[in-house]
Each structure stands twice: as C-alpha cells, then as structure tokens.
Backbone:
C-alpha cells in the first residue's frame, strides 16, 4: 500500500505510473482528491471547534467564579459537543473511503522498469546455456510422464478434479529430491535460513502481502468458526508475515529466508490457459526465497536473489533466460520483477519458472514491518523481496523435456543422481 501523504503530494506522478501499468487512473483513484479534501476539512473543523469550546469553557469558569450567569455559554458548549461528534463521524467515514481507495492502488513501477502494455514488451536481460539438440522430435512432458508411468492426471481427476496431479515412483522421488536439492543449495551456499510455516493463514496475512482484498477469487478460502482461513498461494504469504507488526534491528538486515511448501491457487481468471500437463495447477510445490532488506540496498538484494534462483537451473544444466517485466505485465504489489524462463523443447518455448520481485515498502506498510537504524528512535518500513527458488513442478517437467531420450527414458541430471539412486528414469510397473 502507498503512503497517503505520498499519494496526496504526488498525485500527478501516481496517475502517470498507473497509466504505465495500463490502468485508468480515474478508475483506480476514484474520488480520492475530493474525499481527501473533505476529510481534512472535517478534521480541521473539529480542531477549530475544540479550541473554541476550550475558550468558552474558560469563560464559563470565570463567570461562575464571579457569581455571574453562564447558562447561555453552557448551552453553547452542548451544541459544540454535538457538532464535534458529527464532524468526527464524518471524518471517520472519509477515512474509511480513503483506505478502500489506497488498498486498490497498485505499487508504482521503479524507474528502471521498461514501459509497456503486455508480455510482448518485456525486455530480455540475459540467457544462460544452450537448448539441447535431439535427433528425434522431442515430446512434451505430459506425454513423457504418462508413457513412463510417473505422471497420472486421470487418477488425479478421480481423486479431486482437473488441474491436480498424481506422481508415481521415480516421478514422486524426483519431486522430493528436487525440493531437497533447492533447499540445501539456498541454505548451505546462499546463506538463507530455512522456515517451515503453516499452510493455512488468516485474512490479516493475506492482506499484508496484497492478496486480499483484490485477489480473493484466485484463492481457496477455508471457513473456520467466525473467521476465514486461506490455503496459501505461495510461501511468500506466511514467511513475509512472520515479522508483521514487528521492528527489526538495522544490523539484522538483510534477513534471508527460504521455505518449501505446497501452494494452492484457484486460478479463477486462467481457465483455458495451459490446460495440458502441469504448467498451471491448483496445487503445486515450490521453494520460496524471501528477503527483508534495507531500502538503500534492496535493488542489489533483488539482483542477488535472482542470481540465487538462477543457480538452481545452472546446476541442473537447464537453458533459461531472464526478462525484466514491463509496467503492464507486473504483479499488483511489485515495484520491479524479473522472470526466469526455462526452455521447454517439447513445447518449443520459454516458460516462467521463477518470478523475483522487489516490493519496496508496499507490503511492509500493509503488514507494518519496520526497522530501526542504529542510534535512531524513529522506525522506517523495510523493503520486502521474494522469488521462486524454484517452482518444483515446473523444474520437474523441464527435466523431463530437456533430458528425454530417443528410447523414451529420461536421463537424471548429474547433481541429482546420488539422491535419486539412479541415473535414468524409466518405466517400472507398480
């Protein structure tokens, strides 16, 4: 969420940044200027009336002390009380209306973000590796997985419904080994602290990271007594909210955390997209990277976090590229985002496998996560960052497509062979 004073003092800039996101400022800001003026006028009137009431009260005291009649002035103070209460109520209503507008304003794109309308305007930053060469026509992962008996979408439909998956045997083992590989890399080599958070969170947590109220339809809600709980769409939500309403010491920053969790997404607006295979699922597993950073260091931390995610693909020998998302393609809460896209030869396309973002103070302001500089009494909001390190299911399918062989089997990447206990994924009857 943006600061009220910042929006008020930089309204033209906010409007321009909203336009850069491909949104209509009048639809986003609504009657912000008018309501803000009315709110300030109500507050100012309350203060003036209170000051006037205090002066009248002093006059009443003087009259009473001198034995004079103060009836009219006493009646006047009663009218002040009623008018002040009405103005205070009006100010509270204006404040609520402003809050609703503020939570609907997206984060402002950083100046380094390319301006554009859609994914076609994203800017490629770099590539790593080369696509594999085959002497046969490569297959997509859903065909490979079915033929090897390691991916079962039909039984998942029977168990739950569409957009769920069952992994068998070496397919299940590969998912588990990949998660351990990623966690070990990030904790042992990149300095992250591992966290195992709850998979259900309350509404305050969803609000803190920006999923609520705007994206409720993309979430799985779980009614719980008088309140709602929500299945997490990503570990970003519980891990970022670990420090909600807390003050971090300056010397602790940056705080770097990693977590492996299932993720649950209703994907209400994505039906008809990626209907084949496991690119877009209602449940998938992911290793998340989260940072709490100093404001003057957060963009360097974004580069570091992105490189940490890239390291997973490099060690697995998977060809990928990094793109900077344009203003019209960024998420609601992000100030800048890099997408890492892995090459999928079976689909002849790059597909997102990680999204790494700096949210600056946008989430921290909503979740009230602050820090205190050394020797300073005043607190400031931290900058929060996160990224997938990586989406395990998409890494799984990238291995199947990039390491497939002409005989239908899949070679296991070197760095996973010891934990997999095999150098080949082949069909075994269960």
Residues:
């Amino acid at each position: 969420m943006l600061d009220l004073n910042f929006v008020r003092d930089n309204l033209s800039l906010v409007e321009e940044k909203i336009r850069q996101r491909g949104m209509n400022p009048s639809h986003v800001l609504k009657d912000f200027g008018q309501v803000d003026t009315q709110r300030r006028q109500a507050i100012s009137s309350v203060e003036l009336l209170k000051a006037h009431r205090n002066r009248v009260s002093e006059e009443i005291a003087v009259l009473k002390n001198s034995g004079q009649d103060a009836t009219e002035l006493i009646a006047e103070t009663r009218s002040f009380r009623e008018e002040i209460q009405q103005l205070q109520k009006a100010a509270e209503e204006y404040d609520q209306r402003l809050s609703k507008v503020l939570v609907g304003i997206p984060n402002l794109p950083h100046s380094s973000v390319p301006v554009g309308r859609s994914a076609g305007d994203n800017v490629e930053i770099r590539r790593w590796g080369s696509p594999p060469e085959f002497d046969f026509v490569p297959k997509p992962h859903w065909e490979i997985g079915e033929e090897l008996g390691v991916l079962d979408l039909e039984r998942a439909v029977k168990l739950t419904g569409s957009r769920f998956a069952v992994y068998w045997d070496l397919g299940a083992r590969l998912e588990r080994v990949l998660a351990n590989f990623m966690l070990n890399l990030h904790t042992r080599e990149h300095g992250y602290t591992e966290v195992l958070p709850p998979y259900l969170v309350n509404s305050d947590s969803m609000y803190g990271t920006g999923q609520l109220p705007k994206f409720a339809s993309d979430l799985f809600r779980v009614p719980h007594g008088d309140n709602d709980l929500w299945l997490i769409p990503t570990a970003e939500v519980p891990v970022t909210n670990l420090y909600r309403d807390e003050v971090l010491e300056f010397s602790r920053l940056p705080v770097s955390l990693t977590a492996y969790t299932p993720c649950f997404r209703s994907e209400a607006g994505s039906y008809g997209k990626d209907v084949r295979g496991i690119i877009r699922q209602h449940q998938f597993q992911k290793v998340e990277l989260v940072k709490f950073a100093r404001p003057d260091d957060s963009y360097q931390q974004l580069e570091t976090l992105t490189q940490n995610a890239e390291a997973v693909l490099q060690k697995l020998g998977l060809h990928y590229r990094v793109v900077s998302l344009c203003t019209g393609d960024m998420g609601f809460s992000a100030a800048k985002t890099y997408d890492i896209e892995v090459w999928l030869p079976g689909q002849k396309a790059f597909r997102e496998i990680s999204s790494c973002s700096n949210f600056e103070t946008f989430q921290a302001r909503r979740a009230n996560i602050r820090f205190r500089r050394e020797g300073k009494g005043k607190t400031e909001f931290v900058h929060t960052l996160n990224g997938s390190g990586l989406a395990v299911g998409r890494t799984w399918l990238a291995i199947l497509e990039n390491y497939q062989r002409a005989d239908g089997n899949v070679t296991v990447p070197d760095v996973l062979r010891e934990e997999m206990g095999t150098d080949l994924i082949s069909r075994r009857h269960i």
